[in-house]
Amino acid sequence: MAAIGQCALAASQSIREDVAIMFFKFQTDKMVIGMKAKKLALKKGWLRFPPSYNVTSV
After folding, report:
1. Any alpha helices (H) in 1-58, and if so which ranges?
2. How far is the C-alpha of 7 from the C-alpha of 20, rounded, in Å?
């Protein structure tokens, strides 16, 4: 997540448009890779959603 934020920061502070577009492309590539990794982790059972937390009054 930090890399995505750094790419967004670099793109927003870039003076040149071509450099900003380059950082935007890096950012979208990292997001696509992250989504593929998440889908694979869910499929393999490496990532599980925690059970819901119900608060009961005492």
Report:
1. 2-13, 17-44
2. 9
Q: Compute the distance between CA of residue 36 and CA of residue 4 in angstroms, rounded to an integer.
A: 15
CA gap 7, 22 in Å, rounded:
9
10-50: pLDDT as tens digits: 777 878 788 888 888 888 898 899 999 999 998 998 888 77
pTM score of the predicted model: 0.60
Q: Is 58 a residue whose pLDDT tops 70?
A: no
Q: Nearest CA to 25 among 1, 37, 9, 8? A: 8
Indicate if the alpha-carbon torsion angle 3, 14, 12, 25 is positive or negative: negative
